[in-house]
Structure formats: C-alpha cells, structure tokens
Write a sequence for this structure.
C-alpha cells in the first residue's frame, strides 16, 4: 500500500506567481506528472492543506484543472490559506468535504488504512486550532477505528520546529495537548501527518510519530537562529511516499519532484562483472552491493 502526501500547493489564479517569484501551478503540474510516473503507482494521494494561496473560487478552479491530470485518487485537506466555502463550491462532487458540518473533516478508508482528516483552520489566522467540537469528533473516529491502522492528518503541526516564525503559527498548544492525549490512547495511530511548515520533519508524538513534508513549490528557509526572519527558498521541491505493510508498519520515503541522473549500478571500473564458466559473476568478491 503506497500513500503519497503532497502539501502546500499554494495554487494561484492562472498566470499569477506566488510572491512574484514562484510558479506554483507549474510546480504542481510537474508533481502530478511525477506521481503518475511512479512505479508502482501510489494507491492514493493526500494533500495536507494550503491547496490554494488566497482561498478564492478562481484558485480552486485552477487547482481542480491541474489535479484532473492526476491518475490517482486524492483526498483534500484544508489549511490556513484555504476557505471552506470556496473549496466546497468548486468541488461539489466531493461529499466528504461537506459531511463535517461547519468543518472540512472526514474519515475514509484508504486501502487498509483509516484516514482521519482534520480541519485545523481558524479563518483569518495563520495558526491552527482544534476546538472542543473537532476534538470530540476526532475521539469518536478514533474509538470507531480501534484495532485498525489509522493515519491522522491535519495541516498544522502539533510540534515546534525550531524555526521561530513557524512555531508562532503552529497548532494551538492547548489543542496540541488534547490531540496528544487522544493519540496516546489509541496506539493503532500509525502517524500524525502534517503540512504547513514546507519542510521535512519528524518527531515523537503521543506514542507515535508526527511528520511534515516539503512543498512541491517553495520551502521555508531552514534558519534555527532565534528571531530569524520569515523567508522562503527554492530548495528542490519534494513530497513524501508512505509505504504501509501490516508487518513493517509505515515507512516514509522522501521523493524529489525533479528527476535526477541515474540510476547507475554500484560498480567500480576495475570490478566490471565477468561471467564465469560456472555461470556465476566474479569481480566483486566481497559480495557488497554498494549501499
Ligand atoms: Fe503553506
């Protein structure tokens, strides 16, 4: 079972650049092509928020046209750059986006996994929140899914990164404590998956692992100096590919959107393999395959 996770697409109206510099639509189109070309292909894609940049219906229509090329089922989560109303307006066929009352949260089966998608949006604010109603819904979902492998996904990370400007807009600390208590009571939670920080991160959380992924577009600058200003970089775009099997659990691979040179065989020039009369190979007496 392969579950790809992309996040923080920040799609704008056609022709518009993010921060006058980043062609987020082009980056998403490249990411869609990369996902489609993966062998084996992922079974599903979750998109952990900041789907668009300003939350307008025009942007969601642009997003939808770009995702139409994705040959893999996908699930949409909401982030601080999103608006619930416009998202629902442009994706009327997505029932799961409107079953949560005022919130865009839902739970679905993704292969053997139960995906519990949370809504951590506080309209008009960059920081995230899980109010009592959302936490109660989450508890109900976790109780229902006992004994099954569960992914809890939300936009805002419930942890500090060390990047001050990110930590100022993370998930509310009280909501974090409540979330951690709930997760700790459900050891079948394989992972808490987040976006928002535009970087790859992993941390212990509630007896499981919480993680965040880079963006297919721009990344937040890695500057751990106290008080470092907010900025972004054009580090290589990337996403996560989570592989689940019941014995090994969930393993996360970091995948770059851009293709690299290679693959090349692990072989030194003087160790060119030679077919021996016995039918075996010589030239690599250690048997070491290079990694
Ligand atoms: Fe973002």
């Amino acid at each position: 079972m392969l579950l790809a996770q992309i996040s923080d697409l920040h799609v704008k109206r056609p022709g518009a650049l993010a921060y006058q510099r980043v062609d987020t639509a082009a980056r998403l189109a490249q990411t869609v092509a990369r996902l489609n070309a993966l062998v084996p292909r992922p079974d599903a894609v979750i998109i952990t928020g900041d789907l668009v940049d300003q939350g307008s219906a025009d942007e969601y229509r642009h997003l939808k046209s770009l995702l139409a090329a994705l040959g893999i089922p996908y699930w949409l989560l909401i982030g601080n750059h999103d608006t619930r109303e416009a998202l629902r307006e442009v994706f009327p066929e997505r029932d799961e986006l409107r079953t949560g009352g005022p919130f865009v949260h839902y739970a679905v089966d993704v292969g053997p996994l139960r995906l519990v998608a949370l809504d951590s949006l506080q309209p008009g604010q960059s920081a995230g929140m899980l109010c009592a109603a959302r936490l109660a819904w989450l508890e109900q979902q976790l109780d229902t899914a006992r004994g099954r492998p569960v992914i809890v996904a939300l936009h805002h990370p419930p942890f500090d990164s060390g990047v001050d400007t990110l930590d100022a807009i993370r998930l509310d600390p009280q909501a974090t404590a409540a979330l951690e208590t709930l997760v700790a009571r459900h050891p079948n939670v394989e992972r808490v998956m987040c976006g928002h920080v535009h970087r790859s991160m992993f941390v212990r959380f509630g007896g499981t692992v919480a993680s965040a992924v880079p963006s297919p577009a721009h990344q937040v600058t890695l500057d751990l100096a106290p008080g470092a200003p907010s900025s972004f970089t054009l580090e290589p775009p990337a996403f996560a590919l989570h592989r689940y099997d019941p014995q090994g659990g969930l393993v996360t691979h970091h995948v770059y959107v851009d293709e690299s040179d290679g693959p090349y065989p692990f072989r030194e020039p003087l160790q060119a393999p030679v077919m021996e009369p016995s039918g075996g190979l010589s030239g690599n007496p250690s048997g070491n395959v290079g990694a």
